[in-house]
Write a structure and sequence with these properties.
The protein has helices at 2-7, 10-37, 43-76, 83-91, 93-101, 108-115, 197-202, 274-284, 301-308, 318-321, 323-333, 337-348, 354-359, 372-375, 382-396, 421-428, 434-447; strands spanning 120-131, 135-144, 148-152, 157-168, 171-184, 189-196, 209-212, 216-219, 228-232, 237-242, 248-253, 256-261, 265-266. It is rod-shaped, with a radius of gyration of 64 Å. The chain is of the alpha+beta class and 450 residues long. Strands 12-11-10-7-13 form a 5-stranded antiparallel sheet, with helices on one face. A 3-stranded antiparallel sheet has the order 1-4-5, with no helix packed on it. It has a 3-stranded mixed sheet with strand order 2-6-3. The protein folds into 4 domains: 2-91; 116-192, Resuscitation-promoting factor rpfb (Resuscitation-promoting factor rpfb fold); 203-281, SH3 type barrels, CATH 2.30.30; 286-447, Orthogonal Bundle (Lysozyme), CATH 1.10.530.10.
């Protein structure tokens, strides 16, 4: 009996119970119908029987309930099968069949590995870190406006930091600083920002060269009434030393220091041709009666051309046509070519003398007072005469004895009394004012450069 129960499932038990209940209900219904078709005489008998039926039904209910309990115990404690398995076979066969189609087994190890990075991980660390330096900006009135210059480079600091770091999915999320300990203090970076509009306008800095736009007097201080220190000619260059204000600046002119208004200054950026004018002006300020003549002028061939072209007194254009000869003599023999030309102008009357016209001798070279024409040298050309006189002046008048001159020769200095006009005048001409007269021609030629 037990074996039969063990082999049945819950569905079979319910089915048997249902069949018993239906059988008993059928018998009761038949008995009830019979009682209704009897005569009144049998009514009492029906009621008696009915009472007996009721008693029988109650007893059957008890028996059925006990049976159900026994079956339930058998079902919940089976030897081979379970209620869940039996019920699942009966009620969810379609779902099970669908489930059985998924033949991919779950790999728990893979699932753990794939989701391990999703964990939030915290760790406490102590590490050395850099401390960023600050950058400080300061206005500087001695720099062009908006220009920046680093006066001190910044240096990174160091510190030990203890912190709790949080990672999520392997990525850093946040940290909480627990403690900081400075090891090296950072050093700030210092930057000066220029504010001078004057310097920005002319694109210059302290120490650069500026040029005067007018003849100007250097002052002892930044006041119009201050004492004059020196006069500086137009176009001459000065070195910018200080900028106490946008109106005044301190400059140096040939080692003479003084103050000048910024409105009197310009730069090569603002006035591009000022450097050429300055070159000429630098040459002109050296022109004086005591200047040394055994040195070149610093003039270019174009300068010579400018000087000697279109001179009204050069009616025969002798000097205009021979300016190259004067320039070449200067370069070859290290002599002031303007001085050489001024002697020729003075001695030949701008090339109008008979000696100049007949003998190509612009200097009266070789002449004596008693017989000037007869004793003077004759040259094949003006340029030959110019070169001959240049060599003679260099060798005998302008250089001390033993000075190395042209063609590996040395100066004889027979008539040397100094390399100036006065020194040459001593032995070259009997006229004591000869040097003054020659110098006036020199000034005339030099001034043609302006």
């Amino acid at each position: 009996m037990l074996d039969n129960h063990d082999n049945r499932n819950l569905s079979d038990v319910f089915r048997e119970l249902q069949e018993k209940q239906q059988s008993q209900n059928t018998i009761a219904n038949k008995y009830y119908k019979k009682a209704h078709v009897t005569k009144e005489g049998f009514t009492s008998h029906f009621h008696a029987n009915n009472s007996h039926k009721n008693y029988d039904l109650k007893l059957s209910h008890i028996i059925i309930g006990c049976s159900i309990l026994i079956v339930a115990l058998a079902v919940f404690f089976p030897k081979n099968t379970s209620f869940t398995q039996s019920y699942a076979k009966e009620e969810t066969i379609e779902e099970i069949s669908e489930y059985e189609l998924n033949r991919h087994r779950l790999n728990i190890q893979n699932i753990i590995s794939e989701n391990a990075d999703m964990d939030r991980v915290k760790e406490q660390v102590t590490e050395e870190r850099v401390i960023e330096f600050e950058t400080q900006y300061n206005n500087n009135p001695t720099l062009p406006k908006s220009e920046e210059i680093v006066t001190q480079e910044g240096v990174l600091g160091k510190e030990n930091v203890t912190a709790v770091k949080t990672y999520e999915s392997g990525n850093f999320v946040e940290e909480i600083i627990l403690n900081k300990e400075k090891l090296v203090e950072p050093i700030s970076k210092l930057v000066d920002i220029g504010t001078s509009e004057f310097l920005a306008k002319h694109k210059v800095h302290i120490g650069d060269t500026l040029y005067l736009v007018n003849n100007t007097n250097l002052k002892q201080s930044t006041e119009d009434t201050a004492q004059d220190v020196a006069e500086v000619k137009k176009s001459l260059d000065v070195k910018l030393l200080e900028l106490p204000s946008e109106e005044w600046c301190k400059v140096s002119f040939d080692n003479i220091e003084g103050y000048v208004k910024t409105s009197n200054l310009t730069s090569s950026y603002t006035t591009p041709n000022i450097t050429e004018k300055n070159r000429i002006q630098r040459i002109l300020i050296k022109v004086n009666i005591d200047m040394e003549l055994n040195k070149t002028t610093g003039l270019t061939l174009n300068d010579y051309k400018k000087i000697f072209t279109g001179i009204p007194n050069d009616t025969n254009k002798i000097f205009q046509n021979n300016y190259t000869a004067f320039y070449n003599a200067e370069k070859k023999y290290n002599i002031n070519g303007i001085f050489l030309a001024s002697i020729a102008i003075h001695e030949s009357g701008w090339g109008s003398s008979q000696i100049a016209n007949d003998k190509n001798n612009l200097f009266g070279y070789g002449s004596y007072d008693a017989t000037p024409y007869e004793s003077s040298f004759e040259f094949a050309s003006y340029s030959e005469g110019i070169e001959t006189v240049a060599k003679s002046l260099v060798k005998y008048y302008l250089n001390p004895s033993g000075t190395k001159i042209y063609d590996n020769e040395t100066a004889a200095a027979w008539y040397y009394n100094g390399p100036t006009l006065k020194g040459v005048n001593t032995r070259y001409a009997s006229d004591e004012n000869w040097h003054s007269k020659v110098f006036k021609y020199m000034e005339t030629l030099y001034n043609r450069l302006q």
